[in-house]
Amino acid sequence: MKKDKVVIINRRKLITGLASTSGLLLAGCSSKELPPTYGNVLRMGDLLTYRAFRTLLPAQSLVREYGRGDITSSPAVGTSNPADPHEELYNAERGPLYDRLKAGAFADWRLRIEGRVARPRSFSLAELRALPSKTQITKHTCEEGWSAIAEWTGVPLRAVLEAAGILPSARFVNFYAYDDSGEGIDMLDALHPQTILAYGMNGRELPLAHGAPLRLRVETQLGYKSLKFLERIVVKDEFDDLGKIGDLQNGWAWYVGI
Amino acid sequence: MVAVTSSEERKGSVAGHARWVRVSHWVLAASVLTLAFSGFEILMVHPRLYWGKAGNDLTPALFELPISRNYKHGGWAPPVVFSPGAHPVVSAARTYDIFNQNSWGRSLHFLAAWFFVVTGLIYLVTGFTSGHLWRHLVPCLRELAPPLLWRDIAIHLRLRMPPAPGGPPYGLLQKLTYACVVFVALPLVVLSGLAMSPAVTAAHPGLLDLFGGSQSARTIHFFAFVALVLFLIVHVVMVALTGFRRQMRAMTFWG
Lengths: 258, 255
Fold this sequence. Notes:
Chain A is α+β, with helices and mostly antiparallel strands and 258 residues long.
């Protein structure tokens, strides 16, 4: 199938790309293919961690999955309702839109996939639910220091990206939310088998405070990469720091596998 | 890395420490101070410690430290129950604006950790190959005889330590302390730190089993930090009591 071929080439490119940069921790590789440091020594340390982890750790190891009995309570931090104007990250355009979608039980909600894909398209919740689902009981590790184990049900991000046809040159995947937040990950984490778009939590529909109707789960990184309230996904060839809504311009590390 | 031959090391030990010991000592000291500072900031953000695989404000803590406004803050919305029972699984939204400076705190912690781990590895490799660790840090069995041990403990309790030569050979308690720091506390603090990383534990899940979960690892990381801070205080006091200027000269390059 043509769809599969695109992905195989992409994966090969990814592996050879990683192999050719391994060993060179700070030099080499065009700047557009790596998160920028802005000359900030802390960001240089983050970049060293990113490159060292990608060089030293085996690609796409699976995180530990737990049993039902291990499930713990889960705090909901950050935005707990994008439609609430009192929220710190409230967006005056998308907030009211989210409110209307929520009132209609998200029947009109759609997730757009754009950027470096062969067939840009959008998915309704029903269409996402119709794709093969994955349920996993995993640990959410917050940068603050706490952690929580929960069961997440959703569709592997890989399946959604493949349905749109990832172009061979694509290297990063960015995510936008209904509030003023965004996140990005590299293709290695995006194609990780446990990276899913979750619509269910602990056997129920994803609760509002945890990012209804759909959130990202990036199990190989800290919690803040698992963006809630997904609005659209943009596949990129080059690194894009997402401006004022991204991690870097707010002073946070972009890669947080640690 | 500083190349060392055994003759250079012997020569160096006459007038103090070997050159590579002096360099690594100060790089490690600066890294440990930065790690302690940034680590304390990180702890202030969530001053609760747990035992096991996971833990958060909605689960019981092992203990809680009164070190920031986040200590026992009550800013949680009424919990929503996922599953009731003896140990209900709930969710609650936070309504309290917590102290959080982890944006620079975490990145500074890991930047210092790189200096610490790389210099620490160079120290260990050079220490093993040069024989420094065996000859100067690890006490031989003969030295560990209880009467000798008691005598050294008594000397320290009465603060009657003889003036230190500004380098090896070290006293018995001094050797034991340095060996515990180099072979126990420092490896423990690195491994327990790695056991909190989602990417590292995906590749090496054995780290989770070693510590009994990432929250147990976090608690052990904290106690290893406390032990290292206590060592730091005792170390500086002992240097001050047994010839500060001579020992500083022996560990630096200023005369």
